[in-house]
Design goal:
- There is one protein chain.
- By secondary structure, the protein is an alpha+beta fold.
- The chain contains 15 helices and 12 strands.
- β11 and β12 form a beta hairpin.
- The radius of gyration is 28 Å and the shape is elongated.
- The two termini are 13 Å apart.
Length: 481
């Protein structure tokens, strides 16, 4: 209750400021959960599927991904030609050499009817083993739902907003967990599993799990935000900058390296998405002779003179520069396009991105881990752990545990609401009648709004809507309280 009758005077007693603030935070927590829970359940479920993509792919596409090793790998140009013969009207985007002796090579292409396929080739025989639709498969559905709800930019913004509100849910939940009537181990640090009071059981399960899982859940949210469209894009523009001397003397296009990630799966690391794509220099001689000859302007940073600049020599150059297994080669798409070698291995310290002139074979840009500043390094490390890649199966199991915590918090929150739901309305905690002391809530809104603009705008909108309409108009008050 916000006011009670005084037994001596009969006058109303004003609720204590601390209690008003507690109830306000509780109301925020309730509304945040109302919006966020469906998104968090979806993100956790699809995250689990994509987390185990390597194992699922090996199980579901074993006949395409695995081959019997023989003597020697055929030239990559020959492997690519076999794909061109089988898919004559397709536009080939990139090739990933076989990552192990018993694995096939993968070629990504787009057919004439706009189907995006991964074509698998036996590297020892150049036999095309088959293809996988890169849009219509379980892992692709999971990734698209996880990233943008399969509805494009609007879905991306909704996911970002839900993730930011997830932080509000987490912070407000930790505040609500703080003991108000003295510290006790039971119910605060340990759940009372044996309690016959079902509401107490679910409350403890929710609160104590939230306490111990807060760091993991917060980590998942924060390491996922760099991939979002609004906040992540702005964040990348601020922090993904490289010294000008890295590309001062080469022709650059207005296209960014991150464009390679837009229509396909991740090709280049997040840290280089803002790097301008260089352009190949088209001389008159090269325009007529094609790609068969190398430039006479030879340096140590190019394919050796007299060696044709093609897929074989580009891959040989990548290997000579220590590219880790699993690197891919994106092919030039225009006359001024470049070969792009990109490696995003499990250990981000081995990441590398090379742009190579398609005529001269010269390395136009080379970016490695040591070229990243502190923030991109932290982001890449966070992404590797987020995706379960950094320390193998243990990493996957840790992130699986984090996803299960998210699911448990969501389901226990729903059960708690269901147990206390009223006959009418949604059962939101009542807004305190006396709300004069708004400095602390407004300070929280200001900080969140400065760091995460979408959540700041939405918080102000929700607060105004709640205070001016939901808690005042009788019909809305009956529904939302």
């Amino acid at each position: 209750m916000d006011k009670t009758a005084n037994s001596n005077t009969g006058s109303p007693t004003v609720e204590a400021p601390a209690n008003r603030f507690y109830r306000t935070v509780w109301r925020w927590h309730f509304y945040a959960g109302l919006f966020v829970i469906p998104f968090l359940l979806m993100l956790a479920t699809t995250g689990i599927i994509y987390l185990f993509k390597p194992q699922l792919d090996a199980l579901m596409y074993h006949n395409l991904m695995f081959v019997q090793p023989t003597n020697a790998v055929l030239p990559y140009t020959q492997q690519l030609e076999a794909v061109r013969i089988n898919y004559p009207d397709a536009k080939i985007a990139k090739l990933t050499p076989n990552v192990a002796s018993n694995r096939s090579a993968e070629v990504e292409l787009t057919t004439s009817n706009d189907r995006m396929l991964a074509v698998f080739v036996n590297p020892y025989t150049a036999q095309v083993l088959g293809d996988r639709d890169e849009v219509n498969n379980l892992q692709a559905y999971a990734r698209k739902l996880h990233a943008e709800l399969m509805i494009g930019r609007v879905g991306d913004y909704l996911i970002e907003l839900a993730a930011c509100w997830g932080l509000v849910l987490l912070l407000s939940g930790l505040y609500l967990w703080l003991p108000r009537n003295g510290f006790t181990v039971l119910g605060t640090l340990l759940p009372r599993w044996w309690s016959k009071n079902r509401r107490l059981f679910w409350r403890d399960l929710h609160a104590v799990t939230g306490l111990y899982g807060a760091l993991l859940v917060g980590f998942l949210i924060l390491t996922g935000l760099p991939w979002t469209g609004f906040w992540g894009g702005t964040f990348a523009q601020v922090w993904n900058q490289f010294p000008a001397q890295m590309s001062n003397e080469i022709p650059k296009s207005t296209v960014l390296t991150g464009s390679l990630n837009q229509h396909r799966s991740q090709v280049v690391p997040w840290a280089v998405e803002q790097l301008p794509m260089p352009q190949s220099e088209v001389s008159e001689h090269q325009h007529h002779q094609g790609q068969g000859e190398a430039s006479s302007n030879v340096t140590q940073e190019e394919i050796p003179p007299g060696t044709p600049v093609n897929l074989d020599s580009v891959i040989a150059l990548a290997q000579s520069k220590g590219a880790p297994a699993g690197f891919s080669v994106s092919l030039p798409e225009t006359k001024t396009g470049v070969y792009t070698i990109s490696a995003s291995p499990d250990d981000p310290a081995q990441e590398m991105t090379l742009h190579i002139d398609q005529y001269s074979g010269k390395v136009l840009a080379e970016v490695r881990w040591q070229d990243y500043t502190l923030v991109p390094k932290a982001v890449e490390l966070g992404i590797a752990i987020h995706m379960g890649r950094y320390f193998g199966l243990r990493n996957q199991l840790l992130m699986l545990f984090a996803c299960l915590i998210v699911i448990l918090l969501c389901l226990s929150g729903l059960v708690m609401w269901w147990q206390r739901r009223p006959a009418r309305g949604i059962g939101a905690p009542a807004l305190p009648e006396y709300v004069a002391q708004w400095r602390t809530p407004m300070a929280i809104v200001a900080v969140l709004g400065a760091v995460f603009p979408l959540v700041g705008i939405s918080l102000v909108t929700v607060l105004l809507l709640d205070y001016l309409l939901l808690s005042r108009l009788p019909f809305l008050k009956r529904v939302f309280n």
